[in-house]
Amino acid sequence: xxxxxxxxxxxxxxxxxxxxxxxxxxxxxxxxxxxxxxxxxxxxxxxxxxxxxxxxxxxxxxxxxxxxxxxxxxxxxxxxxxxxxxxxxxxxxxxxxxxxxxxxxxxxxxxxxxxxxxxxxxxxxxxxxxxxxxxxxxxxxxxxxxxxxxxxxxxxxxxxxxxxxxxxxxxxxxxxxxxxxxxxxxxxxxxxxxxxxxxxxxxxxxxxxxxxxxxxxxxxxxxxxxxxxxxxxxxxxxxxxxxxxxxxxxxxxxxxxxxxxxxxxxxxxxxxxxxxxxxxxxxxxxxxxxxxxxxxxxxxxxxxxxxxxxxxxxxxxxxxxxxxxxxxxxxxxxxxxxxxxxxx
Length: 344
Known about the structure:
Elements: E1 3-4, H1 5-12, E2 15-17, E3 23-24, E4 26-27, E5 37-40, E6 57-61, E7 71-74, H2 77-88, E8 104-105, E9 110-111, E10 116-117, E11 122-123, E12 128-129, E13 134-135, E14 140-141, E15 146-147, E16 152-153, E17 158-159, E18 164-165, E19 170-171, E20 176-179, E21 184-187, E22 190-193, E23 199-202, E24 207-208, E25 213-215, E26 221-224, E27 229-230, E28 235-236, E29 241-242, E30 247-248, E31 253-254, E32 259-260, E33 265-266, E34 271-272, E35 277-278, E36 283-284, E37 289-290, E38 299-301, E39 306-307, H3 308-319, H4 321-343
Parallel strand pairs: 4-5, 5-6, 6-7, 8-11, 9-12, 10-13, 11-14, 12-15, 13-16, 14-17, 15-18, 16-19, 17-20, 18-23, 19-24, 20-25, 23-26, 24-27, 25-28, 26-29, 27-30, 28-31, 29-32, 30-33, 31-34, 32-35, 33-36, 34-37, 36-38
Antiparallel strand pairs: 1-3, 2-7, 21-22, 38-39
């Protein structure tokens, strides 16, 4: 990579402040950057690094006006930096090409144009894989499952029968889609399994991290809307509905039949009970325990989860409990002393 700052600004449609002819030879984070690198500043807490970094140039927001180094001002520094990384330093990723001789393809399975299957991939009868999709080694695609075009399935993913995956989806290693929902009825202390007859539908442009479990519905469908991004180690139970462009962060757990409306965010280790609704654009903070529905465009935190400003006050009170305990003990002592004096 070797481009002038002017050429880079053209790629990200940014405004240069400073020397436009600076030569850029690398890309790095603001702390790690060396001379010749370009970096970015998106979080205000890193503002002190703007004059400390060794980078030769910095991508910033529109609000930054002064710097000891050349800058490119943009509307969204993170997005601009991502564009640079994609266009100037694309990831070198070796993908399977063609059909490996050890792949097992069932009767009646349909493979689109330029589909690639790695070693020991199993495609069951009636499955269909769209054009230019890539399935890495050791994956299992169940009976009558559909995968769209240009999707990428990394090693050791299991997608069970009758599941539908959209176009341009990315599914990372170890994930299981379409496993049975956790349904049992207890009779006289014995747990009897309830058949899970539904499916999972995943729309276009969804990315699913590693070791995610998405259960099939009991009767209808578990649904993931287009553009939603799911981090590693997430549990999505049967009949859950997740809308478009949601963010589900690692170790979140969503119980059965809960609805997550479009644009909502569940932060790390958030836990949700079943049969509730998280409104459009709502944010559930990390480790929140959600026991009832959350209104649209609301941020909740804590356990049980409540509106964030209230949760902060509750937490502040909890932090003061040791002092409150000492105060009550002191008051109790004084009351006892007063009672003894009154008896005399």
